[in-house]
Amino acid sequence: MGDQLSPGLASIVTADPKRDRILMAEIREEATYVKHHKKKIAFLFAAMRHFAGNLVEAGWQVDYVQLDEKENTHSFSGEVERAIRRHKPQGLVVTEPGEWRLRTAMESWSKDLGLPVDILDDDRFLCAREAFADWAEGRKQLRMEYFYREMRRKTGLLMDGDAPEGGKWNFDAENRKPAKADLFMPRPARFDPDDITAEVLDLVGNHFADHFGDLAPFWFAVTAEQAAAALDHFVEKALPFFGDYQDAMLKDERFLYHSVLSIYINAGLLDPLAVCRRIETEYRKGRVPLNAAEGFIRQIIGWREYVRGIYWLKMPDYVEANFFDAQRPLPDFYWTAETEMACLKAAVTQTREEAYAHHIQRLMVTGNFAMLAGVDPRQVHEWYLMVYADAYEWVELPNTLGMSQFADGGLLGSKPYAASGNYINKMSDYCADCRYDVKQKTGDDACPFNPLYWDFLIRNEDRLRGNPRLAQVYRTWQRMSDDKKTDYLKSAERILSNLS
Ligand SMILES: Cc1cc2nc3c(=O)[nH]c(=O)nc-3n(C[C@H](O)[C@H](O)[C@H](O)COP(=O)(O)OP(=O)(O)OC[C@H]3O[C@@H](n4cnc5c(N)ncnc54)[C@H](O)[C@@H]3O)c2cc1C
Ligand code: SF4
Question: Please, which of 124, 274, 323, 396 could form a disulfide with 391 given CB 3.0 to 4.6 Å?
Answer without folding.
Answer: 396
